[in-house]
Write a structure and sequence with these properties.
The structure is a single chain. It contains 5 helices and no strands. By secondary structure, the protein is mainly α. Helix 3 runs antiparallel to helix 5. The model has no long low-confidence stretch (mean pLDDT 82).
Length: 96
């Protein structure tokens, strides 16, 4: 029981503090989702610093590229961890 709580707690802390980089996904074995988080965070950072000038002035594109999708996925992962529905790379739930 203590090991399950420790795994859940470490994943929660990583998700809260390093979630936008996808570290919690890499640690739990979800490499593909971790790469999605990492690519989205790099892309959102380039939009906010002005490096991605090729993005059109479309509201939905700016939302996705500006970190809106990243924030939604990050908040959803925190919600899943708190409700006990977060799954690792093998499909096993990470619960308290």
């Amino acid at each position: 029981m203590a090991r399950g709580f420790t795994r859940w707690f470490v994943t929660l802390v990583l998700c809260i503090f390093l979630g936008p980089l996808g570290v919690h996904r890499f640690v739990t074995g979800s490499i593909l989702y971790g790469m999605v988080f990492l690519i989205l965070s790099c892309f959102a950072g380039s939009v906010h610093t002005g490096l991605a000038t090729f993005i059109p002035n479309n509201t939905i594109v700016k939302f996705i590229a500006g970190g809106g999708l990243l924030f939604f996925l990050w908040a959803f992962d925190i919600f899943q961890l708190l409700t006990g529905t977060f799954k690792d790379g093998r499909g096993a739930r990470i619960v308290r």
